[in-house]
Amino acid sequence: MNAVSELASPSSAVNHESLQQVAQWLKDNGAIRGRKPDHRHLLLARYPTGLISEAELEALLAAWHG
Q1: pTM of structure
Q2: Domains: count for the chain
Q3: Residue 44: Cβ-neighbour burial (10 angstroms; 0-12, 13-18, 19+)
Q4: What residues have CB less than 8 Å from 31, skipping those under 6 apart?
Q5: d(CA 23, CA 14)
Q6: Which domain covers residue 50, as residue numbers?
Q7: Alpha helix (H) residue ranges in the chain
Q8: Tens digit of pLDDT at every position of the chain (66 positions)
């Protein structure tokens, strides 16, 4: 088989467990398009815990929102 027919074949690498994992991720995270970003969460996820204080976080959020 060539690469194109392998992608289209019913026995492709996508299995039921993989589809369930993707479905659960979509359920947990929702559609990315309609959501407004949670800037607080983005900053907390980006920096190690304890690196910035709550006051610094609030200052960053205030600057971000202008």
Answers
A1: 0.41
A2: 1
A3: middle
A4: none
A5: 13
A6: 3-65
A7: 3-8, 16-29, 39-46, 54-65
A8: 455 555 555 556 678 899 899 888 888 877 666 667 788 888 888 888 889 899 999 998 899 877
